Amino acid sequence: MKIHTYEKLWLVAAMVLIVGFIATITYGSVALGITMVGDQEDTIEPGELGEDERFDDPRVEQVGENEYEAYVIAQTFIFQPDPIEVPENSEVTFYVTARDVIHSFSVVGTNTNTMAIPGEISTMTVEFDEPDEYGIVCNEYCGSGHHNMEGELHVLPEDEFDLTELSVEADDEVALEDDDEVTLEIAVENGQLEDLETTIEAEIGDETVTEDVTVEGDSTYETTISVDAADLGEGDHDWSVTVDDYEESGTVTVVDQLEDETEDDGGDDDE
Amino acid sequence: MSNTFVDAFPKQARLIRQAFLTSFVALGVGALFGLIQALHRTDIFRPIESTTYYTVLTGHGVFLVISFTIFFLVGVYQWAVTESLEREPVDMRFTWGWYGLMVLGTLLAAFAILAGFTDAIDVSADVLFTFYAPLQGHPLFYIGLVVFVVGTWLAGADWFRTWWAWKGDNPGKRIPLPTFMVLTTMIMWYISSIGVAVAILAFILPWSIGLVESINPTLTRTLFWYFGHPVVYFWLLPAYLLWYILLPKLSGGRLFSDPLARVVFILFILLSTPVGIHHQYLDPGIAEGFKFIAMTNTMFLLLPSLLTAFTVVASMEHGARQRGGEGYFGWLKSLPWREPAFTGMALAGLVFAFGGFTGIVNAGMNINYLVHNSLWVPGHIHTQVGTAVALTFMAGSYWLVPQLTGNRLVGRSVALFQVLLWFVGIIFMTNSMYRGGLIGMPRRTAEPQYDGFDFEVAAGSVGELNAQLALGGVLLFLSTMLFLALMLLTLFNHDSEPIDERSIPRPLSGPEDSPPVLDNLKLWVAIAAVLVVLAYSIPLASIVSRGGLFGPDVSPFPVFIESIGDARFVLESILAGITR
Ligand code: HEM
Ligand SMILES: [Cu+2]
Ligand SMILES: [Cu+2]
Questions:
Q1: Considering only residues 552 to 571 of chain B, which have any Cβ-Cβ distance to chain A shorter than 8 Å?
Q2: Hey, which residues 135-194 in chain B have their CB within 8 Å of chain A?
Q3: Where is there biased composition of kind Acidic residues (chain A) (predicted)?
Q4: What is the H or E stretch that residue A134 is in?
Q5: What does the pLDDT look like over B7-20, one tens digit per residue?
Q6: What is the pTM of this model?
Q7: ipTM of the complex as predicted
Q8: Given 3.50.50.60, 1.10.530.10, 1.20.210.10, 3.40.250.10, which CATH number is that of B16-579?
C-alpha cells in the first residue's frame, strides 16, 4: 500500500494525540482519584422505596466525624429532601435513586451529576469546603413537568448546621373537672454524632418551663412538661416549645367539661 | 451540458429526487420546530404551552436526525452506487419498495408524535428521539420506527444486490470507491441497528401494547446507545462520501488517496459500535471498567476522522494548485469560494473540526460529568449532525439536484449567501449552547429559568446567552427556508441545463495502490463482530443479571399531555473570548 510521507507523519501524530488523550483521562481517574458512578450498589425495587430504611425517609445522615450520607429520591417532578443541607468542610456521599422514570441529579455548575434510574442507586462522594448555595436540576427529560424539577443544596457554616429534629405532641382540649394537666410530650432528636447541649424552653399561657439537656449523639431525648389545667384557667392558651432555632407551637383549650369522651385523639403537631 | 445523471439514469434520478423531497420536507418541519424551541427556551416568544414543548422537541429530533438525514442518505447512496457501478438496481420495484416502507414508517411515527398537539386524538409520543423507558409513547411510534429501519435494511440489501450483479460481470475488479463506502456504511448500520430493533421488538413494543408488565430501563437504554453512537456515523458517512467524492472535484482537483479512504471506512465498521457506553458514563448499574473500555475505543475512533481531515485538506490543496494556487497558505485563495456547493462543504468541514474537539470533551469520562445532558450537548449536536452533516447535504444538493433534474441551479449567489448565513447562525447558536452548558443549563427543558437559584455566568450574562441562541436560531431558520426555496425553484427551472457534468475524476492514488484485503468485507464484518461481542457481552449480561430481562416492577409512564396534568471558567471564558 502506497502511503505518502505526509500521510505517514499525520498518522503518527494522530496516534500520539489519541494515546495522549487516553493517558490524560486515565491519569485523571486513577491518579487523581476522580471516580465515576458505577455498579457499586445493589439494585432496589422502585415501587418499594418506602420499605427501604435508606429511602423511606430521604435525608442527610452523619456517619463519621466530617462524613455524611445523603439519601435522595428523584421523582416527577421533585427531589427529596429539598433543600439538602450539609455542613462546610464535609465529605458527603450521595445515594440517589428514582421512583418512577429516569431523572438526573445535577448540581448546577459542578461535576456532581448523575443519572437517577429506577431500580438503581447512584453513589457519588463530594467534598464541600466552603458555605455555598447550589441549585439542583433534573437534566434528563422526565415528562411534561420536567422544567419544573429543581431543588437546592445548601452548604452551611458549621455553627449553623445541625441534624436536630424537634417534635411535640400536645392535647387540643383539656377539661378542668378531671383535675387534668396540660402536657407537652417533647422529643429532641440529635442526628449528629457529637453530643448536643441545648435548652428546651416551653411556654404555655403565662407559664414558662426551661430544661437544660444534653442529647447524646445519634439519639433522641424525650421529656414531658406539664402544667395544671387549673392554673391556666378556662379558655384558649397558646403554647410553644423552642430548641435552638427550632420552634413548635399550638393552642390548647381548657374547658369546664368535655362534651363527649372522644379524648386524646392526639392534638399532635409534630414535624 | 447534456451529460448529467438524469440523462444516464432517468429512473434512478426519479427515485433519488423523491428521497430528497421527503428529506427536505422533514428538514422544513424540523427547522420550524427548532425555531420554536430556540424562542421558547429563551423566553423570548412562547406561542405554545411549555408542556407542548416536548412534543415539538420530539418532532425536531425525529424529523431531523431520522427522516431528514436518512432519506438524504439513501438518495446519495443510490446515486453513488448507480454512478460508480454504472448500473441500475436489479429490480426497480424492490427499490421503490424500500423507499415506500421508509415513508410508511415515517408517517406512522410522525402521526404518533404530531397527534400530541391535539387532545382530539388519544395518541401521543412525547418521548423524544431517545424514547427512554419507562417513558412510554403510543405503540404506533415504535412500530413506525421499526418499519422505517426495516426499509433502510432493504435499501442496503438492494445495493449489495446491485454490487453482486456487477461483480458477476466484472470479476476480479476492485470495488469502486463510492460503492465501497456505501457497502461499508451499510455493514456498520446492520451491526448497530440490531440494538434498537431488539430494544423495540423484544421489550418496548410488547410493553407499550401491554403484553409484558415491566421493563428494565437500563437494558433498553443500553441497547439504544449500542445503536445510538453508530447512528451518528450513519448520518456522517454520507457527508464523508460527499467530501471524498464530490469536494475534490469541486475544488478543481481529484481525491488524494483512494486507499486511505477505504481504510477510514473500514475503521468505522470496526470501531463505531463498541463505544456506545460513552453515552452512559453517568449511569448507575454499569461498572466503571466498561465505561473505561468505551472511552478508549472512542478515542481511537478519532483516527478515521483525523485521517479524513488530512485527505480532504490535501485534496483541496491539490485542486487549488491545479487552479494556479501557490504558496504555503496562498493556495487557499485559489479555491472556488464563489461556488456554494464548495463553500458550504468547506464551512461544514471547518465547523466539524471545531465540534470534534467538543466531542473529545464529551468522550473524556471525567470531564463528561460537567457537561453531560447540559445545553453543551445540543451545542455539540448542532455543530456535528446539525452542520457538518446538514450543511454538507445542503451544499451537496446545490450540485446534486441539478444532476438529478437536468435543471440549472437557481440563484447561485443566493445559495452562497444561504450557506454563509447558516455558518453565522450556527456560530451564534452553538456558542450560546456551549457556554450555557458549562454553567449548567440543562438541555431538553422548556423553561430553563428556575425559582431557587440563578446561573452564574463568568463572562457575559444569561440574557446575552439567550439573545445569541435566539438570534442563531432565527438565522438558521431563515437559511433553511432559503435553501428550500432555491430547491423548489430549481425543480421547476425547466428550460435550463446544469453547469457541470456528472463525471468524477480519478483519485491521484487509485485503488491499485491499496492491498486487495481492504475489499474483503467478510473479514471486516468478522472482526467487527468480535469487537462488539467483547465490548458488550459482559455489560449486557451484568445489566440483565442485576435488573432482570424485564426489569423491576416499574409502571409505565405514558407521556400523554393530559394524563400528567400538568476546568469550567477557563473553557467558558475562552469561548466567550472567541465571540467577542
Ligand atoms: C433551523 C435550525 C435549527 C434550530 C433553530 C434548532 C434549535 C434547537 C434547539 C434550541 C435545541 C435544544 C432544545 C432543548 O434541548 O431544549 C435543539 C435540539 C436538537 N436539534 Fe436542533 N435546531 C436546528 C436544526 C437542527 C438540525 C439541522 C439538526 C440535525 C440534522 C438538529 C438536531 C437536533 C437534535 C438531535 C437535538 C436534540 C433533541 C433532543 O434533545 O431530543 N437541529 N435544536
Ligand atoms: Cu426531568
Ligand atoms: Cu456517541
A1: 552-555, 557, 559, 561, 564, 566, 568
A2: 135
A3: 257-271
A4: strand A132-137
A5: 999 999 999 999 99
A6: 0.91
A7: 0.88
A8: 1.20.210.10
